[in-house]
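User: I'm writing a tutorial on reading structure tokens. Could you give me a worked example: one chain, its sequence, then its tokens, then a sentence or two explaining what the tokens reveal?
Assistant: Sure. Here is the example chain.
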Amino acid sequence: MTPEENDKVKSLTDCSDVFNYVVEHLRKQGGQSLFEERDQCAYRGDGGTMCAVGALIADDEYSPSLGKQFNCYSFGENSAAY
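And here are its predicted structure tokens:
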């Protein structure tokens, strides 16, 4: 995440801003954020990718241990994987 993206994330104030930011991020990224070794969705994945939720976690708020505790599948089999 660039310093500008970090600042942008921290400035998001309403649901519309969040939605538009996440859509722009996912379109620009062009693919799913994965832990390749486990083939699982990841907040921060291989190659610097970020899932929709991971893109909203500023770098100074993120820790690799967070990604090991939770991922998109942590909330049940019916949870969205993207």
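What the tokens reveal: The two ends are 19 Å apart (CA to CA). Residues 3-69 form one domain.
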